[in-house]
Structure formats: C-alpha cells, structure tokens
Amino acid sequence: MKILLINPPIILPRNLGTPSPYIPLGLAYLAAELEKKDHDVSIQDILLKGWDKNEYFEGDFVYHGLSPKEILEIVRQEKPSVVGITVPYTIQEKGAFIAASAVKEAGQEITTILGGSHPTIRPEDCARHEDVDLVVMGEGEKTFFEIIKQMEIEGVHGAQKINGVAYEEGGKVHINPPSPLIENLDSIPFPARHLLDLEAYFEASKASSGVHGVQVKSLYSPIITSRGCPYDCIFCSIDITMGKKMRMRSPNNVVDELEEMVHRHGIRTVLFEDDNLTHNKKRILEICKQIITRGLDIEWYNPNGIRADKLDKELLSAMKRSGCKLIWVAPESGSQRVVTEIIGKHLKLESVEDTVKTAKKVGIKVGLFFVVGLPGETKAEMQKSLVFAQRMRQLGASCFTFSVATPLYGTRFYKMAMEQKLLDPTFDSNCQSPYLPSPLQKQEWTADYVQHIVEQGRRLNHPQNTKERMLCLLRNPSVVVPYIKKRLGKKSQIT
Ligand code: B12
Ligand code: SF4
Fold first, then answer.
1. DSSP string across 380-431
2. d(CA 116, ligand 1 centre) in Å
3. Which ligand lies nearest to the CA atom of residue 227 in the structure?
4. What's the CATH code of the domain at 52?
5. E strand or H helix at 330
6. Is residue 59 part of a domain?
7. What pTM does this model have?
8. pLDDT tens digits, one per residue of 279-293
9. Which of 23, 234, 271, 304 to mutate to test the pocket of ligand 1 (most atoms within 8 A of CB)?
10. Which of 10, 27, 58, 184 is at 20 to 30 A from 191, Cα to Cα?
11. Cα 415 to ligand 1 centre (Å)
C-alpha cells in the first residue's frame, strides 16, 4: 500500500513573521516503522517546501507552505492510498485541514489520517472535519501500522476498531481507548532520515533565523533519546501524548543512531530535543562518553531546555567534551513563588545561577527560557524576571527567550482559565502561540504590560543596545566613534 506522510502548511497571524522550518521527526519515526514492514512510504514537507512563501493571505493571517493546489498536484503524482498528516502544534490545525481537503480533492477514496500532539489532545475537533477519516491519539508507530494492516483486510471500517483511534460516524465522534505506550524505545527503528531532504532544511535554516535559536553551520537533525516527563508544569500538555513515566533509550542505542546520522547522512549538528535529556545522570554521562570514544565529530545543542538541577560540573564537562556548545535552561521566572506555586515546577532558582556559573567555567554557552503573564503573577514578579535575567547575563548567560504564557489545550493552565473564566472570548485554536498577546483577563496587569516585559527581556539578547552598555560607552569617548561607525555599517537585527 502506498502511504504518503505530510507536514502541513501553517497559518499564522501576520505579525508573527515567517516561521523557521522544523524537521518532522514524528513522521520519520512512522515512516521507519512502515518501511520495516515493507510498505511504500514517502514524506512531503509542505511547510518546508514553501516556508518563505507568504503571498497567500486570509484576513489577518498569512499562509506558510505550498498552496492547496500544489498539495493536490503532489498527491496526484504520488498516488497514495493513505495520507498521514502530522499536527504537532494546535496552531497548525487549520493548515492540516487544508492539506486534508486537498488530498480529498485529489481522490475521495484516499484515506486521510491525522496524528500528533494536537489531535491527541483534541481528537474530537480533528475527527469532526469532513475531510479527515481517522485520528490517531498518542504515539503513532504501532497504531499507524495496525491501521494499515486492518485497512488491507477490511478497509477504513476495520481501522476504526483499533485502540488509540478516533473517528466520526453519523454525526457522532467515537474515541477508542488509548493504545499502550511503547515500553522499550530501543525496539523501534531509527527515524527514516533518508526520506527527508536534509540539505533543504539546512538551506532554509541559513536563509531564516536559524533553527530554534541555533545558527547551524552544517547539515543538522534533531534526535529524541527519551519520551515522557514526570513533572506537571502548568503550561505543558506533553503527558497526554507521551505519558508521565520517562522511558529512556539505552546509551548504546542512542549513540548507534548518532553514528548513523554522522556516517550515513553527513550530519554534524545534532539537536537533542528531549523533554528531560539529563534526567538520569548516569545515562547522559554514558552517551557523552560513547560520543567521544566512537570519535563522533559533532556539535550539539538542546533547544528544548534542560533542568538546571540536573546539571553539575562533572556532567557539564563531559557534555562539553562530547561537542555540546549551548544549553537552554528554563528558570521560567525570576520569582521563586511563581516557579513553585504557580507553575508547579519544583526547581530552586539558585540551581539556575549555579548552572550559569559552572557552564561558563566549562565553556558552554547558556540560554534561558522565561514565561510572562501567568495567572496570579504580579507586575512586581514580572519585573523580578527581568532583574534575574539581567543578573544571569552578568554571570555569563548569553541568550534569552521571553514567551507570553499561553493556556494551550490540554494543560492545567487551560483548565484553570476555563473554570475561572479568565479567557478572552475570542481565544481559539488560532491563538495557541506564545508569541501572541496574552489572552488572560481579570489580572492586575494588561496584555500590553506583558508585551512590554517580553520585549524588554528579548532586548537582553542584544546587550550592545542596553542602557548599561550605552553608559559604559559614554564614559569611554575613545571607543564611541568607532562604535558608532560599526553600528551604522551593520544591518539592523530582528529579535
Ligand atoms: C522538539 C520540540 C520543539 C522544537 C522543534 C519542533 C519540532 N517539531 O521539531 C522547538 C524547540 C522549535 C519547539 C518549539 C515550539 N514548541 Co515544541 N515541542 C517539541 C517536543 C519537545 C518534541 C517534538 C518531537 O519531535 N517529538 C518526538 C516525536 C517522535 O513525537 P511526535 O512528533 O509527537 O510524533 C509522535 C506522535 O505524536 C505521533 N504522530 C505525530 N504525527 C503523526 C501523524 C500521523 C498520521 C500519525 C498516525 C501519528 C503521528 O506519532 C509519532 C511517533 O510516536 C514536543 C513535546 C514532545 N515531547 O513531543 C513539544 C511540543 C510539540 N511543542 C509545543 C509548543 C507549544 C511549542 C512552542 C509553541 C513553544 C514555545 N514556547 O516557543 C514552539 C513553537 C514552534 C512553532 N513551530 O511554531 C507543544 C505543542 C502543544 C500544542 N498543542 O500546540 C508540545 C507538545 C510541548 C508542550 N508544551 O506540550 N518545539
Ligand atoms: S514543561 Fe518540561 S518539565 Fe514541565 S512538564 Fe513539560 S516537559 Fe516536563
């Protein structure tokens, strides 16, 4: 059976700018499992192929990716029986529906299946769309393969019986019991990277603002070494897709994949995108050791953040020796009360300070994530985040991401906001982005105030623009003139 997997377009509010294309690792995992069972499978990244196209407008929204007509053409050429569409982000839902409709236009008989974090959290919303036949909830490797197997026997009706599937029939959405999580992650094949155009991702990263804040200098790819997270932060929903128990791949299995990435695909930059990469110190130490002993010449980053209390000098040194260039750490706030009582993250801010100092000594750069505009957070606490970030910069932190707290579907934050009627009535799937104004009401602050803090925070990425730097320059007239000349010669940067 011919199966086509699609990363759909994304439709973003005009003021969000052009998105950085990302490598859809989830699809590569599905493809690998299907190939193992001898299915004919391909991946089409509609977002990547038209990532810089933004001429197709819809009201205040901009469409990024190939147009519906181009999707239709691709489907006609590929002639699949089944099309699987990934929806990792709620904000990509609309794009996924457009892709599903284009598929159906190419052939009503083609089965369309949606999967990923968003369909897992909102199966009903996805199953109700007229051009979506099935929705897969949770991990897809086993469920998708079961679907294909059943379809070969009984068609779509057979597939409707499988656990982890949702579908609409006669106006009613049926949500089957969840399928069990994959216990042994070493048992699944490595993602089918040979089906991805790695050169094209690299080219797009050079032309855009990099990949997840990293300006990569060589072919790159993400890797995931574990799934699941035992914590319960107010703004996170990952437990619904990947579970609360951490399932970890063995160091051998991880470094075998890294070896394949380097030797087979020529990848030199690796993005570890785990939720909790360093949760088990012994495991990550062993991974670092094997990267070194197997002579893998890579540089690596963790754009998704690691916990500061899971890092120490021994580990950071090993990470550095194995090629780690920059770590992202997530204090989330400069107020311990916000971190502990509002976010529910059991993290001491002192551990962030220790990490910044130790990483500097060891020679790894540090980026910090902050979230502003949580329910019950005060203006003074937001200011504390700025002060804390400023202090971390003085200690050596070099990049800062300030996001607007957003009640994503499936999170405790969303539940609370709904129960307490805190949300702006216009808040919907199109608003599920931390780069949009805060949708929260009944707070001691306004959305504009949050935006102001976020902008101040983002300015820390450009220390040359800060008041402190300007005062320093004015106190040293001998450097002012060359400085101004240099600035005038430089193109302005977008934060
Ligand atoms: C890595 C990552 C990133 C990376 C890169 C993104 C990428 N996709 O490569 C970076 C750092 C850039 C990033 C950014 C953001 N992220 Co992010 N990210 C992740 C993370 C940690 C891993 C994604 C991943 O590769 N997983 C591994 C693969 C194997 O899993 P998977 O993609 O889910 O696929 C499996 C199943 O879902 C399923 N499946 C997937 N697709 C399909 C399709 C079919 C047909 C089928 C059958 C099954 C299926 O099968 C796959 C294999 O088991 C997830 C959390 C997580 N642990 O999954 C959050 C997550 C996807 N991110 C999230 C968010 C919110 C963001 C940001 C908005 C956050 C921010 N503050 O900036 C940004 C926005 C980015 C954007 N495009 O606009 C949310 C999305 C929630 C939502 N409802 O929208 C998640 C779920 C985390 C959370 N907070 O709950 N992210
Ligand atoms: S934000 Fe990170 S630490 Fe918190 S629950 Fe989600 S994945 Fe776990």
1. HHHHHHHHHHHHHHHHT--EEEEEE----TTSHHHHHHHHTT-B-TT-SGGG
2. 8
3. 1
4. 3.40.50.2300
5. strand 324-332
6. yes
7. 0.93
8. 999 999 999 999 999
9. 304
10. 10
11. 20
